[in-house]
């Protein structure tokens, strides 16, 4: 089972707030195989922080993200895969984009995409999750899966709206170093 972390303050306001959200999410993680989120999700939904990251999550120190993931897997040893996107929003339309995944005691890093031109960043995380899960379900290994997720997320952010229009061929082309633009 996969769990894509998310915290929406307005949804939890009537049900105990932030502390209750963390407690509920922590009660669910022992039933999860694949845990996905970004740095804000791990902090807000589970209470794990990334040391050395500003409140605006502007600086991306890969070693600090890895340390946070290791804390998560120590606390929840049932997890088989933990993945996070790495986004540094330079402007509304230019982001550095990548991802990492922990699986089987090892870390796997997606190819960084510095200065990715963004049309609409909504859906990038969901598209990362779907690409990662597709890679895992097709047994292509964690490196392929994290590359697939990062490429799919990048492609999704080059199209309007929060639904990816990228084909598998386009994702695979982007994984091989092709442009993160959907060809139409």
Commentary on this structure:
With 184 residues, this protein is of the alpha/beta class. The chain has a single domain (2-175), classed as Ribokinase (UDP-N-acetylmuramoyl-L-alanine:D-glutamate ligase, 3-Layer(aba) Sandwich), CATH 3.40.1190.20. 41% of the residues lie in helices and 19% in strands. The chain contains seven helices and six strands, in the order βααβααββββααα. It has helices spanning 9-12, 17-28, 39-46, 62-75, 124-137, 142-156, 168-175, and strands at residues 2-4, 34-37, 81-89, 94-103, 106-109, 113-117. Strands 1, 2, 3, 4, 5 and 6 form a six-stranded mixed β-sheet that branches. The radius of gyration is 16 Å and the shape is globular.
By CATH, the superfamily comes out as: Ribokinase
- The figure for the number of domains is 1
* Major sheet size, sense and barrel closure: 6 strands, mixed
Q: At the first level of CATH, what is the class? A: Alpha Beta
Distance between the termini: 34 Å
Total count of helical runs of at least 4 residues: 7
Q: Helices and strands, in N-to-C order?
A: EHHEHHEEEEHHH
Residue ranges: pLDDT <50 for 5 or more in a row? none
Strand content: 15-25%
Number of strands: 6
Return the CATH topology: UDP-N-acetylmuramoyl-L-alanine:D-glutamate ligase
User: What would you say the CATH architecture is?
Assistant: 3-Layer(aba) Sandwich
Taking all Cα atoms into account, the compactness measure Rg is 16 Å
Proportion of residues in helical segments? 40-55%
Taking all residues together, what is the mean pLDDT? 90
What form results from the Cα inertia axes?
globular
Quickly give the structural class. alpha/beta
């Amino acid at each position: 089972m996969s769990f894509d972390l998310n915290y929406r303050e307005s949804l939890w306001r009537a049900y105990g707030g932030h502390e209750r959200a963390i407690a509920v999410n922590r009660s669910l993680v022992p039933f999860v195989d694949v845990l996905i989120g970004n740095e804000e999700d791990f902090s807000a939904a589970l209470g794990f922080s990334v040391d050395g990251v500003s409140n605006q999550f502007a600086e991306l120190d890969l070693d600090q993200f890895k340390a946070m993931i290791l804390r998560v897997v120590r606390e929840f040893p049932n997890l088989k895969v933990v993945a996070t996107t790495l986004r540094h929003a330079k402007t509304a339309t230019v982001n550095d984009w990548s991802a990492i995944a922990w699986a089987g005691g090892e870390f796997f890093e997606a190819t960084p995409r510095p200065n990715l031109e963004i049309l609409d960043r909504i859906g990038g995380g969901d598209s990362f999750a779907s690409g990662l899960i597709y890679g895992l379900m097709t047994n292509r290994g964690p490196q392929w899966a994290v590359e697939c997720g990062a490429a799919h997320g990048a492609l999704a952010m080059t199209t309007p709206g929060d639904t990816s229009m990228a084909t598998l061929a386009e994702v695979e082309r982007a994984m091989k170093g092709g442009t993160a633009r959907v060809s139409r």
